Amino acid sequence: SELIRGFLLSGMPCPSSCPPGLLALMAPGLALMATFSLPSQAGDRRALPVEKPPGVKGRTLILLDVNTKSPVRIISENFLSLQLDPSIIHDGWLDFLSNRSSAKSTTWGRGSTGEKKKSKSNKNQQQERDRLPSRAEPSPGPDGQRADIVRSDIALDKQKGCKIAQHPDIMLELQREKAAQMHLVLLKEQFSNTYSNLTLTARSLDKLYNFADCSGLHLIFALNALRRNPNNSWNSSNALSLLKYSASKKYNISWELGNEPNNYRTLIGRSVNGSQLGKDYTQLRSLLQLIRTYSRAHLYGPNIGRPRKNVIAFLEGFMKVAGGAVDAVTWQHYYIDGRVAKVTDFLKTRLLDTLSDQIRKIQKVVNTYTPGKKIWLEGVGTTSAGGMNNLSDSYAAGFLWLNTLGLLASQGIDVVVRHSFLDHGHNHLVDQNFNPLPDYWLSLLYKRLIGPKVLAIHVAGLQRKPRPGRVIRDKLRIYAHCTSYHNHNYVRGSITLYIINLHRSRKKIKLAGTLRDKIVHQYLLQPYGKDGLHSKSVQLNGQPLAMVDDGTLPELKPRPLRAGRTLVIPPLTMSFYVVKNVNALACRYR
């Protein structure tokens, strides 16, 4: 099943994004990015020669081979996950996840496999019981809950399955007006760092969990870490009430404590160091062990921000105390300030490569204290500050997103949680009509085609290797995985390539070695309409993609290429290529 930060999802949920909470979609598969000619890793074969295609003078033909004997990495089946923000409780969208979006998110979840959903919040938040014998104390603080993508007003019926409540179109229109007004309030809070309290009632939690459960998703809930005792230790009374309620309902939830704890001084005027947060996590682990339902529940953290020097020191303090208490170490990354982003930013290879350095920093600390501990990029988005309309939600943003997936898999990050499914900003996967945006389709293709095993590739004919110490600026990114075992259109042993072409000219790739003379299925994603890279619609192999109805995804039809045909990659595009019947040893078995 998939994990969602705040929510745990199994399969691909419908497109929607939310600010602090996250819906995590995870998919099996490992990827290796090739940015220049790599040492041969495909057995004993010699380095491939650089050739020029017939009839194209002065153009370089790129030769590509894959090591099919063994994977270089194996990532989680839930690699691609999504985030859902608790602000949907505040602005009213929670009630609409239960009808229109629920059908799409359920479709997404069942259309792919291995996902998690998370919900978090940077708002001061209260967690209280609704219509329960007792009420938990309000807990101020910018932390949020993480949960599986859950639709509100969904009734669970073992005989008839999940029922989706339908609201009239006029109610959806009124909700959009309400959300637009709330959007202005949330932006004001964000820029002023003064947040209003958000109360999570038992009814809201029920809606979230039921939505996740009906969508086949797993919920990861982030508890509020900002309730503090006079000695600055965590006050767990509010969390304990929530845990007991969840246990009484037998909710299968994983847990986390806090969100970007390195920024607490800015948010509440009081800092918490890594050592103290480690003690708080140890306390939470003890609480979970006291509750039978959660005695073996997973716990993740500390969900720090960008690993600058002070944040690395924070992580070191945390790992010394609580490295053994968490099941995976988590952090967040946003590439660009959404208030100043331009479309050309998404085409800069220097920007695409900034994530590599952060991964190395996190891995160094984790491997020092808990070698082998899994690492998650728990919050990732193309832009911060809510993103920018017609940019963060456009086709252009997909270059960063797809490269992030390939880069993380190739470097062994176990899970990535996308910010977000539905929220008040523009980083989401669906719009306010719950129609899929470009990154939704990109994620869906990834979930359908990419498995958890990452394969090494050998490339010849790319640009010269950059000088030592220089950031790699190659504009052709190539990754290889075993094809997803859950995709029954392809036999085991098939291989999927995904390619990002940032060049303003087409590139030609000739499959060599084990891939030579195999039939290939092409899934080429391009912008649809006159807006070009700013487009919010995409076409697959020349056919526009859109939901058939609220509950039906279109058929994602490949374009078969004859055996031995050269792959022609159009400029400024993203594409997937399934190489059929390779019978790769690395891909025959799970």
From TrEMBL:
One of the Pfam families matching this protein, by short name: Glyco_hydro_79n
A GO term from the CC aspect: extracellular space
GO molecular function, one term: hydrolase activity, acting on glycosyl bonds
Region (Disordered): 103-147
Any Gene Ontology biological process: extracellular matrix organization
Similarity comment: family membership: Belongs to the glycosyl hydrolase 79 family.
PANTHER family assigned: HEPARANASE, INACTIVE HEPARANASE-2
Protein name (record): HPSE2 protein
Species of origin: Rhagologus leucostigma
